[in-house]
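Appendix B. One record, verbatim.
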Amino acid sequence: HGSHFEIRGSVFPSRRQLYHYFGAFKGSRYPLVRLSIFPGYCNVVCKIVGKRLDMAALCLERSKQVPLSANILIRRGDQDPESGSYFLIFDRFSKGILSHPERLGELEIEFDPDQLVIHVGTGNSDSCEAFVGLDAPSLHTLHIRRVPSYSGRRTNFLTNHELDKWNTPRLRHLVTKRYFPLGLTGLKSLQSLDITLVLGEIDLVAIVQALPLMRALVDFRLMVIGSYDDLQQIPKLKKTYLTSIRRLEIGIDGVGRMGQSSESISEALFSSLFFPDVTDMHLCIISSNDWEDPYDIPDDEKLPWFLQPEAQYPRVERLCLETIED
């Protein structure tokens, strides 16, 4: 597995120069480089595999000040016996990406506790320090994905505060799955937010409290995945009015198979959110169906906390109701 980055702009003056630099890798056993060349525009996608750090350095050098679209893979390290926190291990190419934070336009972060990565070795502490204090003034799009552990080991090696010290004044779009950067100052400038949450993995109270601070937010998507586990604590959530949002998508995954506590938490969450100025709305209900034990998608009488159009969405002009049997 390797990181990749994308460079957009006039990196190389001519098509001939592109093949001069990259043609030698044609036919390689690894798909190191993929090129798409259009008249007047050059789109270079480099996938760094194994030890090809020299290729990464070449791309970064030739691209000059062109904005970067980058991917960083982070896995779980050893646990600190004193603090109880886990060290983060970065893949080898992260050091090159993090040494040019001012050029980042788009960034994807994948937290995978079990992924085997060719890490940066002795430079891991430098990468960790650069990541924690990232100063990316041009970053406009951020994707975060937390991968669950399938090895049976503990997965709570993240605190959701790893990005607290980031400086991202131009951040406009955030897509995050099973993770929420609670202390990220760039949340205040978001125009679109896409969250996928698994109930029981994160503090819903903290997320709901953060939403009204996003006063520029126009597009909001919230997908909740139910849990089979018995979740002991039902959060106490206050009514929250999100007046800036115009386009809304809400979904629940696992209806009919989630535990009673998950249903209670879902009710507490969705009943607390009010969208007085939403005009476009998409509701999605995904049921976990079993041919041996069929389950009917619930109607509005069984899910009153999910469908309260007059109270929660009084100005909706366009409504899409989607039901999916998984």
